[in-house]
Specification:
The complex is a heterodimer. By secondary structure, chain A is of the alpha/beta class. In chain B, strands 1, 2, 3, 8 and 9 form a five-stranded parallel beta sheet that branches. The chains are: A alpha/beta, B alpha/beta.
Chain lengths: 527, 401
């Protein structure tokens, strides 16, 4: 399984879903090898210790091409001994991040919510961390960084020469065997796919020769701005991991892992399943980044199965990316069941009910609709407080708008919340609203429900497909949103029913059930 | 001799429009006339009109030997009069044949019997007068909303002058006893209880078109054989169902009309069998035993209880808040306000709030104009908020806290 991020520092991320999925697969008897690129940078020192026991770092792996088995043999043999069908993906996940005893104290801890996520590493899962500057995109800031680095390098393939694969490509280029990867090519899915195939070929040749890690494949830390070269290098390394692990299937999460997924599946000749958690259309509306879109199209067309987090997303890949509907399967996210309920119920500090928005403050999340509805509610009920939590490019304009709407007394901005602050915020709220314009899934309403907060979600969210005990509105129907906000605030029996039924409902959304379903999707591909 | 007694239920509620919190105090038109008209006309085209004409034809063809009975709620009668008056005319003609009996219920298909005896008596008195005016005959058989039945309700029906009351032949009501006899309710003097034979009724109403049913396809002969398989001592087989079974729940192409076209002759071919009206049964058959129903029984869902309407706290709170308004509405002496309030007592408004999603919820969803039970609750509470202001009643559950 090719993961993308570590358990995230904001709730609702891909990392949370991957963690749940892997646990679900484990209980469904599927052995998983989880590969994740390990970000480097300022936080590296803080994490080095964490990774030491389980991870693999290129510059510490003299015997292997960019990775290394976990030194912790106990864990490995335990998973190896499991008498289960091996339907593995290649991938990695920093499960060690969730084991509190592994976490070294220091500022780096603040980046994670690992201290509130339950559990120890899943026994049936091994994680492989590949040193890489590739970053998760879910967090808007790192996504912006990514786009900027793409921007800076989109026109040039020369820096790819600093990798082994890049050198090979350059040799092919000069020999006239390949087209320069620049200009139009970077938005061409076929060009990306060819790159992945080249990575697979090189990986396979090296594997058959039994080669150890050459100097060229080692991560030198010099690729910061060269995303393209890094993607190619990562694909090659992952393909070699797949060859060594002899997996039965490759499962890749979202577009950044698609080249690596294709390379791994191609090198080994096994099926490729891609998992779509979000698309470029959910992030950028109707103006997708053409390079990201190209990568999505490549993965969607190369995959043998396309697992989407909702029917909503299934329609997106079908109609926007031209996916073959026969290949699409839907697997809704579940909720990590918490043993203990939140203990923040004493946290109320404001008089009057609190209506909460919590999420990125960007166009796709609909914060402006939240404020418009708030203005209507405040006219009838001036005692209602509205809290807008989160950061994003629309935050300044939202502050302006709240003043313009005469809501200065009613609206509070908390900025970006992390870790326990998030739970605390939920617990203070009388109502959580997710007015997303486009939301592939949207796990936050389920987290709110688990904390006994009634929710309103937009009908344009994947989560609205599976949740019954939530109020639903079209995001653009501000009048109806305001009506429902008032109803929840005003009618106590409604609030109680939403809370009681909602808690039960979320309790039934279990990852082990999703794991069983995912296993059946695997079995469609692996006889 | 075993008698087959058909009783068809016709009811249409006044559905609310999407009444927002912001409408409170601003507009007082609560009902979605366009939607109510659209639905009534559709059901009239697919079911009421063709099926009443078919039954009329069957009565005619069998020269008085085929009989059936109806109960039509007051809200349905109103809507038919507005949007499908020819169906009312058919009722009138059918009543004249003497082969079609019309039962009584509450005018507004309400659950008043459970919470407001005065309102219950008022609604029953109104409906009795309406049926008498329509058919020229005062009804003697009572059918409470959704077949909600208990000792107490049977006693009230007796006091209202009825000699028969209908009930669901639910297992938890009758236990080992047969639904094919008449019973005398605990605590009553003279009224009789006639029971719904739920297995045979549901064979027609629910299973007829189900291709997964191992008896599918069922025709009139097969059904008649099942009736013949019953003990000869059985007095009456009550086949009670929604009239919309024919053409609306089960579409014409399932063959449901053909089934009914052939059923009378198949039944009448058997010497042992006949059709009878509820009033005829009551006159000829004696009760076999006392029947004790301390708790209400209904014909809804698998539970056959009240949970479809009053099962969750939201439903109970809304129902209570509505009936709290009753004395104040009557106090205004304004017949239009009273009628508006009564339209809200229709049980459907509470049925829409049912959250039994995972077993019977599918049926609820099918019959609900709302996409969620929560939306149903919000609309009704908003409407009640406005109505409360109009009658100047003290604030209750719908007021801001």
């Amino acid at each position: 399984m090719l993961g993308w991020e570590l358990p995230p520092h904001i709730s609702g991320g891909l990392g949370t879903a991957c963690q749940g999925l892997v646990e679900g697969l484990d209980s469904a008897g599927v052995e998983v090898v989880f590969v994740v690129p390990r970000a480097y940078g300022d936080e590296q020192a803080g994490r080095a210790k964490v990774i030491g026991g389980h991870g693999v770092q290129l510059d510490q792996a003299p015997g292997q091409p960019g990775f290394q088995e976990e030194p912790d043999e106990g864990v490995i043999s335990e998973s190896r001994a499991k008498p289960v069908p091996v339907l593995a993906g290649v991938g990695a996940r920093a499960l060690d991040e969730v084991a509190p005893h592994d976490v070294s104290p220091g500022p780096a801890d603040q980046l994670h919510v690992s201290d509130q996520r339950p559990g120890a590493p899943v026994p049936g899962v091994r994680t492989v961390l590949v040193e890489s500057p590739l970053r998760p995109y879910q967090d808007s800031e790192s996504y912006l960084e990514l786009v900027q680095s793409l921007e800076a390098n989109g026109e040039s393939s020369s820096s790819a020469g600093t990798t082994f694969l890049g050198r090979q490509l350059n040799e092919q280029l000069s020999a006239g065997q390949a087209e320069p990867f620049e200009g139009a090519a970077i938005t061409d899915p076929a060009a990306w796919e060819a790159l992945a195939h080249t990575a697979a070929k090189i990986a396979k040749e090296r594997f058959l020769r039994g080669e150890n890690a050459p100097e060229e494949a080692r991560f030198t830390g010099g690729y910061g701005p060269d995303l393209f070269g890094e993607v190619a290098r990562y694909a090659q390394v992952v393909a070699e991991i797949a060859l060594r692990e002899k997996v039965d299937l490759v499962h890749a999460h979202d577009w950044m892992t698609y080249p690596a997924g294709i390379a791994a599946a191609k090198a080994l000749g096994v099926p490729l399943l891609i998992h779509v958690h979000a698309t470029e259309f959910d992030r950028s509306g109707e103006n997708p980044d053409p390079r990201v879109y190209a990568l999505e199209c490549m993965g969607i067309h190369a995959a043998d199965r396309i697992v989407c987090v909702s029917h909503f997303t299934g329609r997106t890949v079908r109609y926007k990316h031209g996916a073959d509907p026969e290949k699409i399967r839907v697997l809704h996210n579940a909720v990590t069941q918490k043993e203990q309920r939140a203990q923040w119920h004493t946290g109320r500090t404001l008089k009057g009910p609190i209506v909460l928005y919590l999420g990125r403050v960007t166009m796709q999340k609909g914060p402006d609709y939240f404020l418009q509805a708030a203005a209507k509610v405040a006219k009838l009920r001036p005692d209602v407080n509205f809290v807008l939590s989160g950061s994003g490019d629309m935050l300044p304009s939202m502050m302006m708008q709240s003043a313009r709407l005469g809501l200065a007394r009613n609206v509070f901005f908390t900025g970006f919340l992390r870790g326990k602050e998030v739970e605390r915020m939920y617990s203070m709220a009388d109502l959580y609203v997710m007015p997303s314009v486009s939301e592939p899934f949207g796990i936050t309403p389920l987290e709110a429900m688990a904390l006994d907060v009634p929710v309103i979600v937009s009908k344009q969210s994947g989560v609205s497909e599976i949740v019954a005990n939530a109020l639903k509105v079209d995001y653009w129907d501000v009048d109806e949103l305001a009506n429902k906000m008032l109803a929840v605030i005003t009618y106590a029996p409604l609030r109680k029913q939403l809370i009681d039924q909602g808690r039960d409902e979320v309790g039934r959304m279990r990852w082990d059930v999703r794991g069983e379903l995912l296993r059946t999707y695997y079995e469609e591909l692996v006889a | 001799m075993t008698a087959v007694t058909f009783y068809f239920q016709i009811h249409q509620p006044y559905r609310l429009r999407q009444y927002s919190f912001f409408d409170v105090g601003r507009r007082h038109d609560y009902f979605d006339d366009l939607e109510n008209e659209r639905i009534l006309k559709r059901v009239a085209d697919k079911c009421y009109r063709p099926m009443t004409l078919l039954l009329e034809e069957l009565v005619d063809r069998h020269e008085g030997r085929f009989k059936c009975s109806f109960s039509v709620s007051g809200t349905a009668l109103d809507q038919l009069a507005r949007w499908a008056p020819d169906v009312i005319e058919t009722f009138r003609r059918m009543a004249k044949t003497g082969c079609v009996e019309f039962l009584c219920e509450t005018t507004h298909h309400s659950l008043a019997a459970l919470v407001d005896e005065k309102e219950f008596r008022d609604q029953v008195r109104c409906q009795k007068a309406r049926i008498a005016a329509l058919t020229g005959r005062t009804p003697t058989t009572f059918r409470n909303t959704e077949l909600v039945y208990s000792n107490q309700i049977a006693r009230m029906a007796e006091q209202c002058g009825f000699n028969t009351i209908m009930a669901e032949g639910a297992d938890h009501l009758i236990g080992w006893r047969s639904p094919h006899h008449l019973y005398r309710p605990e605590g009553t003097e003279s009224i009789l209880t006639m029971l719904r034979s739920y297995k045979l009724s549901d064979d027609i109403a629910f299973r007829f078109s189900n291709r997964g049913w191992d008896e599918w396809p069922m025709d009139a002969k097969k059904f008649t054989k099942w009736v013949m398989d019953l003990p000869e001592s059985d007095d009456v087989v009550g086949l009670f169902m929604d009239f919309e079974t024919f053409g609306e729940h089960q579409w014409e192409d399932t063959g449901i009309f053909d089934f009914m076209r052939h059923l009378p002759s198949a039944i009448l071919e058997e010497e042992r069998l006949s059709f009878a009206l509820p009033s005829e049964i009551a006159a000829e058959v004696d009760p076999i035993a006392r029947l004790d129903a301390p708790l209400p029984v209904s014909w809804a869902d698998a539970e056959r209880d009240l949970t479809a309407w009053l099962g969750n706290p939201m439903q109970r709170a809304a129902h209570e808040a509505l009936y709290d308004l009753g004395p104040h509405v009557r106090g205004t002496g304004d017949p239009a306000l009273l009628e508006t309030w009564r339209k809200l007592t229709t049980s459907d408004h509470f049925y829409y709030m049912c959250v039994k999603f995972f077993s019977d919820g599918d049926v609820h969803k099918y019959f609900s104009p709302y996409s969620s039970p929560y939306d149903a609750y919000i609309a009704l509470m908003n409407v009640m908020g406005d109505l409360r202001q109009r009658i100047d009643a003290p604030a209750g559950l719908t007021s801001p806290q």
